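Before a computer can learn anything about folding, someone has to put a protein's shape into writing. The three-dimensional part falls to structure tokens, numbers that each stand for a local backbone shape. The protein below has been through that process, and both of its lines are reproduced in full.
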Amino acid sequence: MAENLFYFLVFPGLLFAGVVGGLLSWFDRKVTAWVQFRRGPVLMQPFYDFLKLLLVKETIVPARGSVLTFLSAPVLALSGASISAALILLPAFGITSGFRGDIIVIFYLLTIPSISYVTGALASGNPLASVGASREIKLLIGFELTLLLIFATVIMKSGMNISLYEIIAYQQQNGALIGSLSGVLLFIPLIFCIQAKLGMVPFDIAEAETELSGGAFIEYSGPPYAMIKFTKYIMLFVLPALAVVLLLGGLSLTGTSILWSVLKILAVVLLLTLIRNTNPRLKVGQAMRFFFIWMNALVLIAIILTYSGL
């Protein structure tokens, strides 16, 4: 019991994933600043932002709506992200405390933050938050099918293994899945699914600061918003780590492999950042068509190539 709590609360769950995610947030913001010819934030800025919200800012509860649901949504989002972090990073770091079929559970756990954001926004009673929640749900419907097909194809390519630990072991013996043509085709929609899950441009439709002033998060402040921010830090680490585990051969904490693992994570985050800084925001309909037609088409081609051994 104590070991499981340690995995969930300290390493590789809540605390570890949040700290690494905060550092990756700094990396994302620093690269963005360089692209825009600015200096960018200091290394600790993401943590200053989090602590300011947690310790200084006041929690303002909207007069309308459900107070209990509004305040519990960030807790649920943080819990879902933390459990996902533990289940993804344990096998990624070679710890065999996972279970068979964990990849299926992870797929559902990764939807908890998005659903929590929608629930909290609807409970706030703010019409702009409701619009943001509506957009979040539509976006979720758009990319979840694509992500599910990607998971299914990875299972097929790894010898019908439904355990992350076994998928990593398969790649260690046979090479990273991205080394095949179908693996390359899978990597493209996976990156865009991660972009959408993180709410990054061009899929920041639910927040849309210039239109909705934060959308689903417009009524959040103080510690509840600090939990949302910490959840985003965790997801910024967990989702690139998932991409590395599924297609890039996994991670390692031994010897010089640590550096290689760090570089793979940074490469994925760098790609997400560059996409964010070189594309305009899409409309909801455009984003749904993008996933339903183009990304699903790429995954279906990858499935056919997988059956052909490519």
